[in-house]
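Minutes, project check-in
Item: structure for the 352-residue chain
Input as provided by the requester:
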Amino acid sequence: MNPPLLAFNEKGIYCEAADTYLDPWKPVNKAIISHGHADHSRWGHKKYITHHSNVPIIKHRLGEIEVSGKAWNETFTINGVKFSLHPAGHIIGSSQIRVEYKGEVWVFTGDYKDEPDGVAVPYEPIKCHTFITECTFGLPAFKWQPQAEVFTEINKWWQQNKEDGRTSVIFGYSLGKAQRLLRHLDTSIGKIYTHGAIENMTDVVRPLAEMPKTTRISRDTKKDEFKGNIVVAPPSAHGSPWIKKMVPYVTASASGWMTFRGARRRRAIDRGFVLSDHCDWQGLLKSIEATDAEKVICTHGYTDIFSRYLRELGYDARTEDTQYEGETGEEESKKRKRNLNVLSLHLQSGCK
């Protein structure tokens, strides 16, 4: 019996026929990288292959590395195995990795999102036999509003804070979420200030996507400059001495985890906006259906519940352990474990 085209081992997702890894979490000789987030693009590999637009991102994060860029749908062959990269819609430069060998096709999604966001190249479903999917938000409880509605809410929140004489501080990850926020903030309301980590990454992606004018916050930025304007910062800035400069301020977080009422309270956030760079429950199901895949492998997220539901639908579905985190930090991982049993009742109550 031939080994599977892709196998999960202690280093990552391995294609034995090509002697190549996909998004490995331990150092390897050759790695094909889906996107620039730290859990998928790690330091220490000898050779990196990724999409052209992801090259400057991972160079910014990892330093001097040996990396080659590929175009969308460009086929490149390694030891007779055909690989190609296809838009994942997750963040700028994010790819699905298609692998074909002897008539068998697998697709590894990395992380993906099916709603176009105006920044990343939109997700494209790829036909395959086996589909490796994340399921970060693989519960029926996760159902996203259309992006336009969310940004209408965010801009109204900013406007109200301005009228109240306060600074708006909104938190989002420095790669992906921050640029999405920047792209859709209404600059007619006021100026956009950015934390250094946000500005550094945004400078890298400006040649790749349309971004508004922003002002980096420095030691020379005066306290009275912030009033009525908005600050985009990473979650790590919340509660730090850095944020005291913005007093009086109102905080918000943009995350899929804002679905949970308790998440905002635990983070001591004034306002939560449900905005994710991953698929919701229905997005995952529609995306999988569009591939015509018979086999589905579920990686990071609510893997057990989601794979069980897929089996009920008739898919040959299973789970695999990885070191990918999705849109989770330590707090979200703990919260997911706490809520797992309660939320799984959705599957038993007809939420299909």
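Outcome recorded: The domain at 7-142+277-348 is CATH 3.60.15.10 (Metallo-beta-lactamase; Chain A).
No further action items on this chain.
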